[in-house]
Amino acid sequence: MSSIYGPRQGCWLAMRLQAINRILLVSLFFLFPSEALQAATLTGKVLDERKNSMLTVTVIIQALQVGTLTDEKGEFRLENLPPGTYAVEFQFIGYKKETRDVTVSDVQPVALEVKMTLEAVIGGDVTITGERDRAGELTGSSQSVLVLPEAKLEEVRGQTLGETLEALPGVSALTTGPAVSKPVLRGVHSARVLILNAGLNQEGQNWGGDHAPEIDPFAPSRIEVLKGAASVQYGAGAIGGVIRIEPPDLREVPGVSGRLNVSSFSNNWQGAGSLFLEGASRRVPGLAWRVQGSLRRAGDARAPVHIIGNSGFDERDYSAAIGLIRDNAEVEVYFSHFGTQIGIYRDSHIGNTTDLQRAIDRGQPTVVGSFTYDIDNPRQVVDHDLLSVRTQFWFEGKGNLVLRYGQQYNRRQEWDAHSLGGGVPTVPGFDQGLLSQSGDLIFQHNPAKGWFGKIGVSGMKQRNTRFSTGFLIPDFLAYNGGVFALESWANERVTFESGIRFDYRWLKISPNSSNRASEQVVGRTHTFTNATGVVGLIYQLSSTWAAGANIGQAWRPPGVNELYSNGVHHGTAQFEVGDLTLKTETSINTDLTLRYQGDRGKGEIGVFRSQYRNFINLLPANEFVLTIRGAFPKFAYFQSNARIQGFDGYLEYELNRFLSINISASLVRGRDTTNDQPLFLMPSDRLIAGLDFHIPPTGRFLDQGIGFETKLIRRQTSFPAGIDYVDPPAGYGLLDFHYHAQMAVADQLVRAQFGVHNIFNTRYRDYLSRFRYFIDNPGRNITFRLSVPFGQTTDN
Amino acid sequence: MLGNSTRRLSIALSCVVAIFGFACSDNAPTSSGSSAGEEELITTATVTLTPQGGGTAITLQFKDLDGAGGTAPNIDSLKVALGTTYNGTILLQNEAATPAEDITVEVKNEAEEHQIFYTTGGSFAIATVAVTDTESDYGTNAGTDLPVGIAFTLTVPNNAGNGTLRVILSHFDDDAKNGTTQSNESDIDITFQVTVM
Question: How many beta-carbon pairs under 8 angstroms link A with B?
Answer without folding.
Answer: 216
